[in-house]
Write a structure and sequence with these properties.
Oligomer: heterotrimer
Mean pLDDT of chain B: 88
Helix content of chain A: 25-40%
Order of helices and strands of chain B: HHEEEHEEHEHHHHEHEHEEHH
Strand order of the largest sheet of chain B: 6-7-8-3-9-10
Mean pLDDT of chain A: 92
Strand content of chain B: 15-25%
Number of strands of chain B: 10
Shape of chain A: globular
Order of helices and strands of chain A: EEEHEEHEHHHEHEHE
Strand order of the largest sheet of chain A: 6-7-8-3-9
Shape of chain B: globular
Structural class of chain A: alpha/beta
Number of helices of chain B: 12
Distance between the termini of chain A: 25 Å
Radius of gyration of chain B: 20 Å
Strand content of chain A: 15-25%
Largest interface: A-B, 32 and 35 residues
Low-confidence stretches of chain B: 1-22
Number of strands of chain A: 9
Structural class of chain B: alpha/beta
Helix content of chain B: 40-55%
């Protein structure tokens, strides 16, 4: 489902003397359907960078990133837009939404983008919010005013409200209490069971142990190390 | 678990339209080597891109970067010195709107195209009621039934969250945000396929901006609109635009997926632009 | 009685030729506003300088000339224009519509049917029907050229939304031969049906705005409207107090401080002839 080959990444800082900073080299990774792979490595080792490259958020310097049959490293913007709409979900640590839009609509949006009618999409969104224990009185409010944990769960709800064939999870359990953490791990296991390919960053070791099939240490992709 | 599997199988049934859309679509708008200068002063130069149905593209850059000139050339308000603006017309397929006759271009301007001005008063008739403003495009394409026109106007006022009892009020009595929403209703009533927007949230209060952004996002999604939005507000393009084009001194210095350009800018100017945004 | 100090009908021959060319162009393109080099006339703008120039350009010595102002032959404006041409052209004047060959009018079309060979000259204050909604002349010209007339209906829409019906009662816009939208000058909309299929030539002159337009005989003229709010040639729902006519356009006359009023034909010639034929209204002496 996800196949990364010989991936590299550099940052060029044009406004700081044109400094070229290589951050990744020779990265390889394969994630099959129904598999969950954890990216590990010290902070700054490039876990998030790799995730962002898979999502098309960062450009690549070389190599390929196949998600399904699309090479994200070479894809046109519109192909990536479609990939994100139809195939690749992303649960980020940060919530970025239009202010004043009700939480229910924020979560329903991935369904609406696929053409589902409003009431149906909102019903599904409501079910997901309930499952993640977001109190119902908050559903009609904008998540911009929510606590960190609540925002995180809204992000998770968006990522799981429909069955993406591939998912990127950036610290999905980071600021959750035990009960919600269990719900999220359950969602991940369900997604795996239906065949989703998942790449995740989990600092939470026991969560990692519970849902991840393999660990990839991205330190191995640091420039100069790969051989 | 079986639940999830079922819903996965039901996917095709729920979204048949989505599967039909798999075939690669033709671009709705193809801009080729568009160039316009004002005497010795360069407006924009050698701009080329394709816009596909349903896509929203942002154009950012500082004042004088040529983004408004570019928008004007694309929308037929300015005559480019060189280049083509090929639009996929409903009737005759792709046509270069630069070389098509003025009547045809103006017809596009009130049917398949829409233009939302920064200053709502430039896009509204201030001496005409809200209902008349919305109805004008319908009447311009031949609607001659008062009751139908009024019903359409009422419906559209509702869609842009203007109370129906304001239908006979003139735009001058509306707030800035309402005027902008009225302008949008007036433009979208004929079901255009491409909307040009020039700083659509400029000059509005932040809270009003948010509401307008949400409204525009909903309309773009529900009507399957394509849009080109010129703005200097990076937050606006991040929320509205799928793709982004960065202009400096009349040239496109960088273009790509909006979040990619903003989060991993490649050109020095874009890096400067992104790093100059004040964080709240 | 012609004043020999003036050229026939006041204007010099070159000016008349220029105006005649504009008239011919106007007749060739019914409803299209032809620009012309309007001259200063010895009367203020708004008193019919456009109409007077048209009249001067088409007048022949053998013409019988009639002038009406809101239907009346005896108002100041009508009297002075009639006197002007009696003095500068020496033409015979008449008040009778059927006798006249050349009629200059302000804001009315005579009740008596016009016939072939007659010329009706309208005085026009503002020739551009789109003006009130689109003030830019460059834009209105383009709208005429490209037949973009949606705006005209916006005006009628506004009428209905404000009054429940099309309240425009004069200068009611018409479309000529399915092409140009035209302002028929401030005639009551009651007169609009007379514009179409008329055997006489109808000329429109706007002196200040320097425009001439025309309707050749038997031109198709349609008053704009909505399917669900059709055009109606309305008038006050009374018979004439003097001649009893029920089919003529009426003026309302306030009789005293108590608010007593009567309705009389605005066309004085029409009313007078009916009275001469023995017709009597309820207020007739």
């Amino acid at each position: 489902m996800i196949k990364i080959e010989n991936l590299s990444k550099t940052f060029t800082l044009h406004n700081q003397g044109g400094a070229v900073i290589p951050v990744m080299e020779g990265a390889n990774l394969t994630v099959g359907a129904g598999e969950c792979v954890a990216l590990v490595g010290a902070s700054g080792a490039g876990k998030s960078t790799l995730m962002r490259m898979i999502y098309g958020n960062y450009l690549t310097a070389g190599g390929s990133i196949l998600v399904g049959d699309l090479d994200v490293a070479r894809a046109q913007p519109r192909e990536i837009i479609r990939l994100r709409r139809e195939t690749l979900g992303y649960v980020s640590q940060f919530l970025r939404v239009v202010p004043r839009v009700p939480t229910l609509d924020v979560v329903a949006e991935p369904l609406r983008a696929l053409g589902m009618d409003e009431s149906r999409a909102r019903d599904r969104a409501a079910a997901m919010l309930a499952r993640l224990n977001i109190p119902e009185p908050l559903w009609e409010l904008s998540p911009t005013t929510f606590s960190g944990g609540e925002q995180q769960r809204v992000n998770i709800a968006r990522g799981f409200v429909r069955d993406y064939p591939a998912l990127l999870l950036d610290e999905p359990t980071a600021s959750l209490d035990t009960a919600n953490r269990a719900v999220v791990l359950g969602l991940i296991e369900t997604a795996k069971a239906r065949g989703a390919a998942i790449v995740g960053i989990f600092h939470d070791e026991s969560a990692r142990a519970q849902v991840c099939d393999r660990e990839i240490d991205v330190t191995g992709f640091a420039p100069g190390r790969a051989a | 678990m079986t639940d999830a599997q079922n819903s996965s199988k039901n996917f095709a049934k729920i979204f048949p339209k989505n599967l039909a859309a798999q075939a690669a679509p033709a671009p709705l708008l193809s801009v080729r080597d568009l160039t316009k200068s004002y005497g010795a002063h360069l407006g924009c130069a050698d701009v080329s891109f394709d816009l596909f149905p349903g896509e929203v593209m942002g154009i950012v850059g500082e004042s004088g970067s040529g983004k408004s000139t570019l928008l004007g050339c694309m929308a037929g308000h300015l005559r480019p010195d060189a280049g083509a603006v090929i639009f996929d017309t409903r009737r005759d397929g792709p046509r270069d709107t630069v070389t098509m006759s003025e009547p045809e271009r103006r017809m596009l301007g009130r049917t398949d195209w829409a233009f939302v001005h920064q200053n709502a008063r430039d896009g509204l008739r201030v001496g005409v009621s809200a209902g008349g403003n919305v109805g004008e495009r319908l009447m311009a394409v031949g609607a001659r039934h008062y009751g139908d026109i009024r019903a359409a106007a009422t419906d559209w006022l509702g869609r842009v969250e203007i109370a129906p009892d304001r239908i006979d009020d003139r735009p001058g009595t509306f707030s800035g945000g309402m005027q902008q929403r009225l302008q949008i209703a007036r433009n979208l009533v004929t079901g255009p396929r491409l909307v040009f927007m020039d700083e659509p949230t400029g000059g509005l209060d932040v809270s009003v901006q948010a509401r307008l952004l949400d409204l525009m996002r909903g309309l773009v999604r529900d009507m399957g609109l394509s849009a080109i939005i010129v703005t200097h507000d990076l937050a606006v393009v991040r929320l509205l635009a799928d793709r982004l084009m960065v202009m400096k001194s009349g040239h496109v210095v960088e273009q790509g997926l909006t979040d990619q350009v903003l989060d991993d800018p490649q050109h020095g100017y874009t890096q400067l632009l992104v790093s100059s945004v004040l964080q709240v | 009685m012609t004043d020999a100090a003036y050229n026939f009908a006041y204007l010099d021959e070159q000016t008349k030729r220029m105006i005649r060319r504009a008239i011919l162009k106007g007749l060739a393109i019914p409803g299209y506003q032809v620009p012309f080099a309007s001259r200063e006339m010895p009367m203020p703008y708004g008193w019919g300088t456009g109409g007077v120039q048209l009249t001067a350009a088409v007048m022949c010595p053998e013409d019988r000339f009639k002038v009406i102002d809101q239907g009346a032959d005896d108002t100041t404006n009508a009297v002075s224009i009639r006197a002007f041409f009696e003095r500068t052209a020496g033409v015979a004047a008449t008040t009778r519509t059927d006798e006249a060959t050349l009629i200059q009018t302000r804001h009315r079309i005579p009740e008596a049917p016009l016939r072939a060979g007659q010329v009706l000259v309208f005085q026009v204050p503002i020739p551009e029907p789109l003006r009130f909604l689109e003030p830019r002349e460059s834009e209105t010209r383009k709208m005429h050229a490209l037949e973009e007339y949606g705006l005209m209906h916006v005006k009628l829409y506004e009428d209905i939304s404000r009054h429940g019906h099309i309240a425009t009662s004069y200068a009611y816009p018409v479309q000529v031969e399915g092409r140009y939208v035209m302002d028929p000058s401030p005639i009551p909309k009651f007169d609009n049906p007379k514009l179409g299929d008329c055997p006489a030539i109808q000329l429109f002159g706007a002196g200040r705005e320097q425009r001439i337009y025309a309707l050749p005989p038997y031109t198709r003229v349609v008053s704009l409207d909505f399917e669900d709010h059709p055009f109606e040639a309305s008038k006050a729902d009374h018979p004439c107090g003097l001649c009893g006519a029920t089919d003529s356009y009426l003026d309302e006359v306030i009789m005293d401080d108590a608010g007593r009023r009567m309705f009389v034909c605005s066309d004085t010639d029409f009313c007078g002839q009916r009275q001469a034929a023995g017709h009597r209204g309820k207020d007739a002496a």
